[in-house]
Structures are given as C-alpha cells and as structure tokens.
Amino acid sequence: MKITGLEIIPASKYLFIRISTDEGIHGTGEAGAWGFLDGVEGVLRRFESYLLGKNPFQIEHHWNYLYRSMYFRGSVIMSALSAIDIALWDIKGKALGVPVYELLGGKCRDKVRSYEAVFCYTPEEMAEFCVNLKQKGYDAARLMITGDITRTQADRSSGIYNSKVEGYIERVRACREAVGRDFDLILECHRSMDPCEAIAFAKGVEAYRPLFLEDPIPPDSPEAMADVAKGTSIPVATGERFINIQEFETILQKRAARYLRPDVCALGGLTPSKKVAAMAEANYAKIVPHNPLGPVSTAACLQLDAAIPNFAIQEFPSFYHQGNEAEMTTEPFREEDGYIVIPDAPGIGIELAKDLTEKFPPRQRSISAQTAYDGGVYDV
C-alpha cells in the first residue's frame, strides 16, 4: 500500500485532512491550531511531498522523520503532524479491519464519561445550566470560572483582587449547592490568574471538592504551576497547549499536575498521546484529553480513551450539540446519559459527510484579546 494524496478539507472553524492510498483506503485527520489554520495548511502541503509514495503503516517512522527533518518546532507544525498521524492510524485500522484502539493495546472500557462546558458567567446562570446537564444524564461539567470570553473589555471589578477572587468562589458555591454532591465540577481558569489569585481561589473552593483546577495560570512555567499545585489540595490539570512529550515529563517531575490534558490534534496525534498516557500512569496521574475541536478530534480521543487504564473523563465540545456538528459525519456519536460509546468501526470509527465544506463554510477564528479596564491586555 502506498500513499497517493493528501486532501485538505476546511469546514466551519476546523481543518480536516484526508490521506488516500492506492488501495482505495483513506484516513481522516484534524489539525488543532485553530487560530492559525492557514499556517497549518502550508505545513501540510510541505509534508505532502514527503508522504507521497510512502507506506502508511510506518506511522512511528513517518512521525519521527517529519518531526526531526527540519529542526523547527512549534504549534503550527505539530498540528499539521497531528492531522497526518491520526489519518495514518485511521488507514491502518481500516486496512486491518479493526478499530484503532485494538492497535493501541485493546479496549479497556466500552464507553467514556464525558462533560460539557458551561458557557454562562453569573452564579445563577451557571448553576441552572449545571442542573440542566444533570437532568440530561451528565454527572460533571466544566465551569468557565474567569469570565465571559466573548467580551471585548473587562469591567473595573476584574482589577480588584478581593472582588475578583470572591466572585470566582461564588460561582463555584452556587453550582455545588444547585447540583448536590453527586456531580463533579471542573474549574476552568483558562490560564487567566496569577499564582497568588489561583492559590487564594483554590483555597476558597476546596470545601466544594472540585474534580480539578484546570490551567489556573499560564502554562509557560512548570515551576510556577508547581507552586500553585503545592498551595492547594485540589488537583491541578494542564497540558492542552503542550507540543512535545518532554513538557509533560517536566510537569510530572515537578509534581505540578495530577491530571494531564494532551490534545491529540496539537501534540502530534495519537502516537505521542499514548506515550504521555504511559508516562502519566507511571506517576499515578490521570488523562483528560483536551478536545475543543471537531468530530475527528473527538473520534481520535475516544480511541485513546478506550486503550489506556488511567483515563479519567472526556471533554465533549458543546458546539457538537449547539452547532449541529453531528451532521459533519455520516453517523453521529452514540451518547448514553453523559457517556459516549466507543465506536467499533475500523479505524477511528467515523467518516466525514460528503460536501462538508459546502455544508459548513470555513470561518477561521479571528485574532482577539480582551482589554482590561485601564486599556491593557487582560487574560480571560
């Protein structure tokens, strides 16, 4: 079997690819650097010249060749490599007639626990949304703690330390009181606090026993993240923007997180994500795959989730339900009371719908940052 082509398929805010072979089998992948998809497309065109004529089964070799050939690193390059890696695993599974999880060690579970994000920003609205999710069968939700990401400017209270921290705490308190004890709260801080704010906030919500504190501060300094982790009993989760396995190893060495968040469409695909899961297992850490993307990302995550013993919970994008994205694939994911059933079809288990670009016109996200009350840049 030889690779004969690489087709780029933009749709909505996503970038998918289809790698074809001379035996009529194709594989589908997705890129993760959603802010720079035009750049990813350029890298994919460059990588295509290498892939043509190659045996798609040599996934690890191709991964290393592309990763090590030009010396450069970065999120755009790794997102392109991620899409290719996922597509090659899809081809191999289809060619052998098995789901990808069989090639990763076999199935550890039949379905995966999932959660949705709560894109509400007042305590009352957040609590009501959590109750609605619980009524639908979910037993976990991700709270967007640090404010409305759609606003262009933060209000004055966001610059007042006590007001800011107390406001965050009130959101968690309201949600816990609304859903009771049989429901997990995931606190998404979106990299928008400093260490002092993060520790004060964490201590203020420890009594509500959240599942984890996600990216309380920017992930650039493992040492600073470790300081936050040491300052609270709430486990820290991070890793969604990491682009190599060494970043995860450093986080584990520093004891900076107990939950790791590899993004299969940003880290380099399923190949390095499986390695991160093994590293985490050796350190008694759990895996919560980052997944803010399209259905190919979700499908790849499910294959990983099925094959690792230390899986915790799966992020399920709210856009899938609210943006009719089930129509992006020929068959929707099977959902059962907050769980997603692992697809058993060969490969990653899904196929993109025909005429996808026409049905979901491309609309790459624009560059935007929220400004503070004083006119500076504000992280939210």
From TrEMBL:
Mandelate racemase/muconate lactonizing enzyme C-terminal domain boundaries: 123-235
Assigned keywords, A-Z: Lyase, Metal-binding
GO molecular function, one term: galactonate dehydratase activity
Gene3D superfamilies: Enolase-like C-terminal domain, Enolase-like, N-terminal domain
GO terms classed as biological process: amino acid catabolic process
EC number(s) given by UniProt: 4.2.1.6
Name of the protein: Galactokinase
Species of the source: Enterocloster citroniae
